[in-house]
Design brief:
This protein has a domain at about 5-115: hpI Integrase, Chain A, CATH 1.10.443. Helix content is about 40%, strand content about 10%. The chain has eight helices and five strands, in the order ααβββββαααααα. The protein is elongated, with a radius of gyration of 22 Å.
């Protein structure tokens, strides 16, 4: 339960793991339904967790929190986050930030519990960006959502699906409706 808000934030807000771990209470604006991504927690190979900047300059951004996620955020803030603006959103019992490996261990236990050992936490972010693309988000909008510095990074989420292909051809077919033509008569002057 303590780390469960990481799941909807990753999927519905398209955040990277380190961005989720870098969130603090003051980054969330419940009134306006937004959150600011200002920092990330990373774990260098063989090192200790480091709080730093997001992966890219574009990674520093404000994202909208979908209405379906806000109730979980409110409950999480009330149950697990201190009142200080710099209190870590996803934290250990004492309020200190957790390392990426701690979140990965919790994610591993959750995915094994549901019988999906194949899922990676990043798959949730990928799904969220793919859903955004399927709703018609432009490449620029996907870049803003995902904190991408280049269109190339955003384009990987715009892969076509059979269902989307069918929806597109059906929409095109609706453009080919028979039209009624009304003849225009010249008036006698």
């Amino acid at each position: 339960m303590r780390y469960s808000l990481a799941v909807p934030l990753t999927a519905w807000c398209q955040l990277r793991r380190g961005e989720v771990l870098g969130l603090q209470r003051g980054d969330i604006d419940l009134l306006h339904g937004t959150l600011r991504v200002e920092r990330a927690v990373v774990l260098p190979p063989g090192g200790r967790p480091i709080v730093g900047m997001p992966k890219t300059v574009a990674g520093r951004r404000t994202v909208s929190v979908p209405p379906n996620v806000l109730p979980a955020a409110v409950e999480h803030l009330a149950s697990f986050v201190g009142p200080e603006p710099d209190a870590w959103l996803i934290s250990a019992n004492g309020g200190s930030p957790i390392s990426p490996s701690t979140l990965e261990l919790a994610w591993r236990q959750a995915r094994l519990a549901i019988g999906r050992p194949d899922l990676h936490l990043h798959d949730l972010r990928h799904s969220g960006l793919t859903w955004a693309a399927a709703t018609g988000a432009s490449t620029r909008e996907l870049m803003a959502l995902g904190g991408h510095a280049s269109p190339r990074a955003a384009l990987r989420y715009q892969h076509a699906t059979e269902d989307r292909d069918r929806a597109l051809v059906n929409a095109l077919a609706e453009l080919d409706l028979p039209a009624t033509v009304t003849p225009i008569r010249r008036s006698a002057e």
